[in-house]
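Predict fold of Family 1 glycosylhydrolase; 60 aa.
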Amino acid sequence: MGYTPWGCIDCVSFTTGKMKKRYGFIYVDRNNEGNGTLERFKKDSYPWYQCMIATNGAEV
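Predicted 3D structure, encoded as C-alpha cells:
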C-alpha cells in the first residue's frame, strides 16, 4: 500500500475548472477568476509528506 498525492501543487479542478478545490501540498496564490501572484507557499501537509518519503512511511 502507498500514498500518492493528486498533485504536488494546487491545480485547476478538471471537473469544475475552478481553483477553489486545493489538492496539492504547495499552495498557489490564484483564485477562480485567475487573479493572484502565482506565488507558491508550502502548506502544513508539506513537511508531513516530506517525512513520509524520508522514512518510507515508518513514522506516519
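Residues 10 and 22 are 5 Å apart (CA to CA).
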